[in-house]
Amino acid sequence: MTASTTRSSGHTEPGPHPVSGGPIVQLPTAYGDFVAQAWTDHAAGIEHLAVSSPNLPKGGQAPLVRLHSECLTGDVFGSYRCDCGEQLAFALELIHREGGTLLYLRGQEGRGIGLANKIKAYALQEAGFDTVEANEQLGLPVDARSYNAAGQILAEMGLHEVRLLSNNPDKQHRLDKAGVTVVEMVPTEVPSREQNLRYLQTKKDRMDHLLTLDIEPVSNGKKTASPQTFDSNQD
Fold it and tell me: pTM higher than 0.85, yes or no?
């Protein structure tokens, strides 16, 4: 971790963590046919969803796993202020093709600060603060997420060794502490946009995310050099 990193999660990942899974059902989607299983985190009272490909990994590889933090603005409304919705689509397409599971982790909006606080942080970002500074101005952690439940769900599913779909090395460290071995980090970088370029640059510079940002941002499918950018709060 570099000296420039700003992070104040303070979480440890002890185990086991009390979770229970429901029935496994078919889930046909625009990205292909999956099976889905809801999981309840009994310590936090939050429900999560595991979406798994029926296809087995090829060549004896470990399954792909994406820990996707809930992002209402990006996942549902397609906000360009973050890259969450596009990462979700990318991960589902790749997991369906190569085999694995996406854990949709609810209660992690805005890296765990909640929807209302995320919108407050947006207002501060529009006033000039970056995503890290905005959380600090609100007196909130830079990243308040816990992966206790995620680690236990993966263990219950028999996924002890995984290829992690993420640009965030902190997720690898936290899963290791939760007893899940990450044998490979698989990038999920999607093309940047003029509206989220500053946000992505902040994640790269201040949170050690493995991003290249070596392409021009796109806007409505076209490359652009417009300087107008926003910042966001997510993975």
Answer: no
